Amino acid sequence: MPRHKSGSTYASSELDRTFAPAQTLAVIGPVVGLDEDSVRAMLTAAETASPASRIRVDARADRRHWDYRENIASGTAVTSRPDLATDDLGELMDRVRTRPGERAPVEIVLCGDYVVVHYSHGVGDGQMGVTMVGAAASDPGHAMAASMAPSLPRNATWSAVRRHFGSTPSAARDFWRLRAHHKRRDSAPATRRIEHWAESKTTRAAYMAPEQVAALRAWGKEHAPGATSASVSVALVIAALRSEGVDLDEHVMILFNCRRYLDASHRAEHGNFAIGIPVKLPTLPTPGDVATVMKEVIDSGWPVAVLALADAKAAMKGHRTSPPPPPDDVVVVPERPRLAVSDLGTLSLYDHLTWRDDGRPRQMTAALEPDGPDGISVLISQVQGGRSYSASFCGGMIDVAVVDRALARACADPVALLRGIE
Question: To pair with 414 at 20 to 30 A between CA atoms, which of 115, 139, 154, 172?
Fold first, then answer.
């Protein structure tokens, strides 16, 4: 990867700039031993691990070359808010996201025995958030902090393209065929009027206990052999939302981490290298349906091909950049919400934490901003045997109570929901 001298700038990718305005939050807890000094020391260790530490970038949508910030642990980078309730992690993330004041690219808020990280998506994708929230909870040797320093190489996209399509020449043909197959044939008319949608962004959260997780896994082995945990998650979320009357768009955005196409030596490095692929699914897909489509997408190289096309278009634009337009007060969108699902899988990097053993579930969950008022982004993660679900969306588009019921139904009896679509 390229070396940077102190004081140099970071050459952002097209995806970096696209995501820079978006805010990402992640929360973990309940854990013991949280204090501001330890978190500031962790951030300082992450900053000083390299002159070009990824966590230092000053993410800007209107600039190709980003400065590296200094003293990232100072001031409001770390604050304590013991007044914020932690019984509902969705509401907690909402309160942290909407707290007054100008935001730095990376901020960490301690809320009792929970810690929330709040950062610009331009700094990094979910891999950064997953690491940062664990390091903020406990990182006595600062090994996790140091792991946040390396950025992906500047040529990561093209290296991944050459590696995948060079080893599988037929993948290029499969990519174009698949993209044509899943292409939206006609655009739904925009008839739903949403006012001040940015103000009605919200995140709801729910928890699936280890007993239900085990039952779901056992059902999957028997009734959906070959289906992955991610494909089961997508099918379950769709079934839960539709069971509550949500008329979803037929195209579902599934997040793919493009690091799978890189050499293993680069897969722990940070940047924006995960992308959502919109695929057409049946109204109520089985986990097997989803697994088949996901495997086809991965094998074709579609995710990394999209990154390459975006980089190529950016190169053709030259050095022209522009700030993102301000959000419109009134937006007209199609009636059917667009679902995006990201399954982070089982996260074992938190096994070193000292969890508070008082009956509350041990969780790490996150909020990913939807890309418009008609979007709903669902994120799933598994920690200590239980699964956390979060849904971020516009309350003016989908009733909050409907999403609450859908998440509760998915977590209470996931097998019953999936059994209904066998």
Answer: 115
